Each structure stands twice: as structure tokens, then as C-alpha cells.
Amino acid sequence: MNTTEVLDKIYWVGGIDWELRDFHGYSTEKGSTYNSFLALDDKVTLFDGVKATATDQLFGRMSEITDPSSLDYLVLNHAEMDHTGGVPEIVRRANPEKIFCSAPCADALVQHFGKQDWPVEIVHTGDTLDLGKRTVKFLETKMLHWPDSMFSYLVEDKMLISSDAFGQHYATSARFDDEVEPGELMWQAAKYYANILLPYSPLILKLLEQVKSMGLEIDMIAPDHGVVWRKNVQGILNAYSSWASQKGREKAIVVFDTMWHSTEKMAHAVGDGLITGGMETIVMDLHGWHRSDVVTELLDAKGLVLGSPTLNNGFLPRIADFLCYAKGLRPQGKIGAAFGSYGWGGESVKLLNAAMDDMKVKRVDDGLRVKYVPTSQDLEAARDLGIRVADAIRESLS
Ligand code: FEO
């Protein structure tokens, strides 16, 4: 079943989910994987389980390496069901002598699966576990992205099993970063960060500092989704540092919906202005762009310009969807403006301004409203709005 030896006597035995297309609102156009790593040592140890639907894959792969009933230890770095849904079956069939996890994970297991007589042992940051030839050191990563989250560091192998961190929803026959197209891999890693980890960016900066201060040498990062980083370890660490800083760069996105193409014309003019102002620019019509791809492009963009016509005294529903999703991810430090067409009330720009204020987006002004269909002067004003946003971005980054 295509197991992979990722390091000497450490095997990937996870599951590939080619069909997954939605991860609670995040579009997973490339599916995902649920990674488990099996260490053959004096104590045979499995790091992390899989989603319930991938349990047969896990046992199929484990069986190619060893008899699953020889499992001694199960380490659970995270309680979310995409990694623990298969745990009841693993415990039933493999009957591990001990299950190691954080205290919040132990609670979460009970809250998910009911009180069980599983042999759970709680570990804390700095605790070590002797497997025989190798040692595991635990590092709790509370709220990255659940209270129970934890890393397992294999000391002699310099391998960090990082749970969701550094992961990608990326189903592929490859198991390593150097076996896939690097641009696509970084896009998928960025998409994962933007859609899952962005709200916890301040904690990620602290964690990266903690890893440095603990002196952990890392030759391999093995996340629980996607491919294992063995070549570009420093690249993904640097990317996390940059994404978590939320500084942004000279890039702006124009996110809009339109009714009769008036707001669309304004969006294109705003985009022209941003380009004229020197910004890398993407004009994103929410008819075609999925919310989770928009927030991925927003990750390193300094500029966020929003457009909607007025409908029933509000903005269009796709904008409401995007704002609900983006606000929850708590992007920081953006600069922007609002625009939109209207027929009589014209509330949408006012509401977009309020939404941007709520997200602490620094607005260059109160935005631009156009009655019915923009004239050439209106489009010039929209271009000028784009130029002013570009100027404000450049000034803030200088
Ligand atoms: Fe991949 Fe938070 O579970």
C-alpha cells in the first residue's frame, strides 16, 4: 500500500483522502492526507491517528511494516477528529500499552469518545519518552490550533512531528517536499496557514522563538497533513515567521461582488489605480473566487479594498459570507477602502466601512459610492482611490 520510510525505521503509514473538497468552509481542491508515523524501536510507537474513514489505509500500511498488535505506544499530538476519528479502532485492534498526550487532549478524548479505559498518560512540555534507540521530547503548543495541540520531537533523528503546523491539505502520491512542484506546495502551505492558523499568529511567533531557545535542531518537519519537509525546512520556518508577523507587502486585493456590473467596473478601475500605484494587484470577483482562496491571497497583501452594490439596505450575500469568514481569521495591519454602486439608499459602502473598522483595516477615506452606472469621471475617481490606497500602503511599509 505504498508505505514510505521517511527516516531509518520511521515509516509514513497514514491515509490519503483524494476526495476531500471542503474542510469546514476551506476549499480543499487537492484533497488531503492524514499522516501517521510509525517508529520501529524497542517500543513500537505510532505518532498520531487518522480520520475514521482512513483507518483501513492505516492498518493496511502498518501491516506491511509490522503486526499492528505489536504496537507499544500511541502518541496523540492533537484531538481533532481528522487525527483521532480512527483512534477507537486503533486501540481496539492494536491495543497499545500506553497512549501519550497532553492534559487537554486527554480531556478532549473523553469528550469525544466517552469515558474509556484507555491507558492514557499525560505529558507536558520538556517531558521525554525513551523508545529504545531514540528519545521523544514533547512540546505543548496550546491553541495552535486547539488547546490540546502538541509537537513530538525525535531527538536523535532531529525530526519534528508537528501535528497541524506546517501542514498542507494536499493529497499527492509524493511524501516529501522535494518531490512536488515547489510553487504549488508553498501555495498549499500558505492556504493552510491563512485558513487555519492565522488567528494564532502571535502565538506562532512566540513558539518559533521557543523552538530556537530550546536549541532544537530540525532536519525534518513531519506535519499531519500533506508532504514532509526534508529539503526546504528553513524555507517553511521562514515562511511561518513572515506570515505570523503579518507585516504584508506591496500587494493589494480588490474583493467585490456585483449586481449589474457597475461595481465590477469600479473594481477594475480601483485595480488599475493600484497597479498604477505600483502594487501587485489581484481583482477578485466573489462569483469565481472561493473565500478560502481570497484569504490566502490576503495573507501577504497589505491592501484590502472591498466593493459591493447595495441590496435591500445591505451588501450582497457573498460579501457577507467573505466578511464573516475573514473576520474570524483576524487578519491584522491591513490598509484599504470601500466602494460600490447603489440605486437609492446606498448603504453598502457605509456597512463595508463599518466592517473594515471592525477588522481594524485602516481606511484611506470613507470610500466611493456611485449611483446606478459609473460615468467616466466616476471611474477616474475609482482609479484615484486605488492610487491613494497604493500610496498609503507604500508609506506604511517604508
Ligand atoms: Fe488536522 Fe486540527 O486537525
What do you see in this structure?
With 398 residues, this protein is an alpha/beta fold. It has 2 domains: 4-245, Metallo-beta-lactamase, Chain A (4-Layer Sandwich), CATH 3.60.15.10; 253-397, Flavodoxin domain (Rossmann fold). 36% of the residues lie in helices and 22% in strands. The chain has a 7-stranded mixed sheet. α1 (55-65) links the parallel β8 (45-47) and β9 (73-75). α5 (182-197) packs across α7 (233-245). The model has no long low-confidence stretch (mean pLDDT 97). MU-OXO-diiron binds at residues 78, 80, 82-83, 145-146, 164, 224-225.
Task: Set out the fold topology.
Blueprint: E1 4-7, E2 10-12, E3 15-17, E4 22-23, E5 26-27, E6 32-34, E7 37-39, E8 45-47, H1 55-65, E9 73-75, H2 81-84, H3 87-94, E10 98-101, H4 103-113, E11 120-122, E12 128-130, E13 135-140, E14 150-154, E15 159-161, H5 182-197, H6 201-213, E16 220-222, H7 233-245, E17 249-256, H8 262-276, E18 280-285, H9 291-298, E19 301-307, H10 317-328, E20 335-342, H11 348-358, E21 362-363, E22 368-371, H12 376-397
Parallel strand pairs: 8-9, 9-10, 10-11, 15-16, 17-18, 17-19, 19-20, 20-21, 20-22
Antiparallel strand pairs: 1-2, 2-7, 3-6, 4-5, 7-8, 12-13, 13-14, 14-15
Bound molecules: MU-OXO-diiron (FEO).
Residues 78, 80, 82-83, 145-146, 164, 224-225 line the site of MU-OXO-diiron.
